[in-house]
TrEMBL record:
One of its GO terms (cellular component) is tRNA methyltransferase complex. This is tRNA (guanine-N(7)-)-methyltransferase. It catalyses: guanosine(46) in tRNA + S-adenosyl-L-methionine = N(7)-methylguanosine(46) in tRNA + S-adenosyl-L-homocysteine. Keywords: Methyltransferase, Nucleus, RNA-binding, S-adenosyl-L-methionine, Transferase, tRNA processing, tRNA-binding. The keyword Transcription regulation does not apply. PANTHER family: 3-DEOXY-D-MANNO-OCTULOSONIC-ACID TRANSFERASE/TRNA GUANINE-N 7 - -METHYLTRANSFERASE (PTHR23417), TRNA (GUANINE-N(7)-)-METHYLTRANSFERASE (PTHR23417:SF16). Its EC number is 2.1.1.33. Residues 1-12 have a biased composition (Low complexity). S-adenosyl-L-methionine binds at residues 122, 145-146, 179-180, 199, 277-279. Residues 1-40 are annotated as: Disordered. GO terms for molecular function: tRNA (guanine(46)-N7)-methyltransferase activity; tRNA binding.
Amino acid sequence: MEQESNNKNNNNHIEDEDNEKPDHSELEQSSTIQKKQRLMPKRGEYRMRAHINPLNDTPFPYPLNPDYVNWKIHYPKFFDGTDEENQKVFCNTNEHPQTYDEEVNSLYNGLQGAQPVFLDIGCGFGGLVFNLAKNFPEKLVLGLEIRDKLVNYVSEKIKALRIESPDHKYNNAACIRTNAMRHIIQYFRKGTIEKMFFCFADPHFKKSNHRRRIINTGFLSEYAFLLKPKGRIYCITDVEDLHNWQEEHLAKHRMFRKLSEEELVGDICVQLIQDSTEEGQKVTRNGGKKWTCVFERV
């Protein structure tokens, strides 16, 4: 009896030890979560002041013309790039520099190969860039932003999403630091862009600063030059005065015509500009109103 009792105690002790063994699947899951948390940038660490004068001199590199832009470094998988190349960040900031020193092989500069066709001008934290990339996986989406911290955030988030995504999503998303008002024409060729987005642009309320508004007569001619026939410009703002300004200037320009609500039925981009950006979500939370307009290049 005493031996049986000892055996039972020993068995119980063995069972207890077995119960205390770590669950490898739980450890792996925890390790994966920690890795994802390390990869994904935290938005709060990248905030900076909202306004930069776009008419100031440009303190960072920019290309002489589209022949000097290498799209392969931004979208490696669309040029048979390796996984290692796909996880590198080049976005024209101090942390992730790039150069435009020499002409690029025509396969990489868009003359023969792929190039961006959706542009989010002033992309901020990149909400629209991510949603466009997800909804249009075959289209190359590019965010243009002048504030370096925001560009770093978007680019590092794209890198993290590329690594984490099991089905290779977000290979078609990229972001670069540039001043679109000064240099957009130096990145893209005539008639190559399908859609341009201007979401919650700086209203520049003072009359003396209206020339800094991104929708302006001279800039519209450049946008018309870059857009394909029937390419679209999407504008959204929570400032009624800015909306009226944008709509008036676009309507006056002979290369654009306003699209009616009937013509916009089925255009998912109209919904995306409402809900995808950080600014748009903030307006929704505060119960504010948003004004939108969409124009087509004729």
